[in-house]
Amino acid sequence: MSDKVRQQYELLPYPARDPRDEAQRLIEGSPSHLLELNHYLYAGARDFTQPFRALVAGGGTGDGLIMLAQHLKDAGCPAEIVYLDLSVASRAVAEQRAKVRDLDNITFVTGSLLDLPTLDLGQFVYIDCCGVLHHLADPTAGLAALTAALAPDGGMGIMVYGTLGRTGVYPMQAMLKTLAAYAPAPALTATNQLATARDLLKQLPATNWLRRNQSIGDHLAGGDAGLADLLLHPQDRAYTVPELAELVRGAGLEIAAFIEPWRYDPASYLTDPSLLHRLERLDPIARATFAEQLAGNLKRHIVYLVRKGRAGGAVAWPDDGMVPVLRAGGGALADSLKGRSNLKVSIDGLEVRLQIPPHSAEILGAVDGKRSIADVHRTVGGTVEALKSRSAFKPAFDRVYQTFNKLNRLFLTRGAA
Ligand SMILES: C[S@@+](CC[C@H](N)C(=O)[O-])C[C@H]1O[C@@H](n2cnc3c(N)ncnc32)[C@H](O)[C@@H]1O
Predict the structure, then answer these.
(1) Pairing of strands 150-161, 300-307
(2) What class has domain 2-161+239-314?
(3) CA atoms within 13 A on the CB side of 311
(4) Where would I find the H helices in 264-389?
(5) Is the pTM of this model over 0.90?
(6) The CA-based dihedral angle spanning residues 107, 110, 112, 113, taken in that order and rounded to the nearest 10 degrees
(7) Which of 106, 14, 102 has the alpha carbon at shortest distance from 58?
(8) Each residue of 258-292: pLDDT tens digit?
(9) 10 Å Cβ neighbour count for 218?
(10) Backbone angles phi, psi at 89, to 5 degrees
(11) Dist CA 78 CA 52 (whole Å)
(12) Which of these, 6, 58, 94, 118, has the minimum number of CB atoms within 10 Å of its CB?
């Protein structure tokens, strides 16, 4: 079956990318944003002046690869990133993108991640595997192969499809298989299959679950490659949170964080205190499971993983010496919060208003990626009377930190990232 998967990505590398666009923009996302992986895997304390070996397994056309390589280059890190993928056509796109950006910290390898034990690529302190495990006949074997290549104190960022958010996808795949089985001559080509998919999409009745699913838009907007990846894939499966937790547990790993954290928190969707109270004692996986069932629109799960027993020490904590850093565009965020008590977030068909804590604008306005939390206090305390004392500032900061960290906008470092 792996041959069919390879053929799919030789024919239609996904996501489709034009290397020339690298001159205009950097695509940033999750997993593998350097601030994120430092925060969730290295307690914010990774020293990027030291060597860093990463593997991007199933690197495809290079989105995660290029972001990680660029971030490490910008951090002045003596890094080596190994790109591994079955598809030569995808690798060609990724290589071209690296060339346009003058990135010389990447080694390109064509092959299967299942062959890692014999590829002799060494150990890695970080492994990215985004959108790949769910295409394997045996994802458990895939994660085991990755884990064997992971340094003892290393971590991974992975993405697998989410079952509820993909509601309607699998019945549509099944219908297209039926139509393919009864296709008239000429031979069944990818072009014919794409045309059939488009014809059927146009005629879906209003009650069809794919038509009703508002979270699938990006794949459908992704041209031929997006459509094929969504509806004509020879092999894919999706995971609920408990199924993902089981996969992770089976590999001797544990989940350090779900991205974006707010989407895995029932409190992001519920306001009734009596309902929320009953959920307080749930462990993080059970809370994430409830949030997934409640939201219904999680079409992919992005998680950071560490070896079992390490999650507690792997995730950064807001002590006074830590340096808070906003993801790109942070200044504009602080400005946009002035005088507001809530923030509108729209994602995958859902629009929610999330409460933002008092003084968010002032506190985030003082966050510049250089000041420690203690320095942020000195800066804000000088102008905001209510935040002058430490006993007033610290809980106010913690609330702001929790809110914007959950939104995946605010991270902590020891100052080196
Ligand atoms: C959906 S694409 C994701 C690409 C990239 N990680 C991203 O997020 O943009 C899946 C990629 O996994 C690759 N792949 C599938 N099975 C693989 C395997 N056993 N070993 C290595 N790569 C594999 C495919 O060739 C394809 O490029």
Answers:
(1) antiparallel
(2) alpha beta
(3) 14
(4) 273-279, 284-295, 311-314, 330-336, 360-365, 373-381
(5) yes
(6) 10
(7) 14
(8) 999 999 999 999 999 999 999 999 999 999 999 99
(9) 12
(10) -65, -40
(11) 7
(12) 118
Return the DSSP state at 351.
Answer: E
Ligand 1 atom closest to the CA of 112, numbered from 1? 20
- The helix (run of H) or strand (run of E) holding residue 272 is none
Phi, psi for 83 (deg, rounded to 5): -95, 130
Tokens encoding 70: 């660029």
**263 closest CA partner among 354, 199, 367:** 354
Give ligand 1 pocket residues (Cβ under 6 A). Answer: 2, 5, 9, 14-15, 58-60, 63-64, 84-87, 90, 112-114, 130-132, 135-136, 229
Place of tokens 């794949």: 219
Structure token digits, residue 408: 């995946």
Here the tokens at position 320 are 């006074």
The 3-class SS string of 220-246 reads: HCCHHHHHHHHHCCCCCCCECHHHHHH
Ligand 1: residue whose CA is nearest its atom 19:
112
Candidate from 28, 67, 86 with most ligand 1 atoms within 8 A of CB, to mutate? 86
Q: Where are the beta strands (DSSP E) in 111-227?
A: 124-130, 150-161
Domain ranges of the chain: 2-161+239-314, 165-231, 323-413
Residue type, 308: K
Whole-number Å distance, alpha carbon 134 to ligand 1 midpoint, is 10
Q: Which DSSP letter does residue 162 get? A: B
Q: Within 10 Å of residue 283's Cβ, how many Cβ atoms?
A: 8
Angle among Cα 213, 67, 335 to the nearest 5 degrees reads 75
Lookup result for tokens 């109270």:
277
The string of DSSP letters for 95-127 reads: HHHHHHTT--SEEEEES-GGGHHHH----EEEE
Q: For the purposes of burial, counting CB atoms within 10 Å of the CB of 411, is it exposed (0-12), middle (13-18) or buried (19 or more)?
A: buried
* Token pair in block for residue 89: 């056509």
- Give me the helix-helix angle, 190-202 and 223-231, nearest 10°: 80
pLDDT 10s digits, 334-361? 888 988 889 999 999 999 999 999 999 9
Q: Residue of the nearest CA to atom 8 in ligand 1?
A: 130
Q: Report the distance separating Cα 399 and Cα 26, nearest Å.
A: 31
> For the purposes of burial, counting CB atoms within 10 Å of the CB of 202, is it exposed (0-12), middle (13-18) or buried (19 or more)?
exposed
For residues 157 and 33, give the distance between their C-alpha atoms in angstroms, rounded to a whole number.
Answer: 10
Q: Which two tokens stand for residue 97?
A: 């993108």
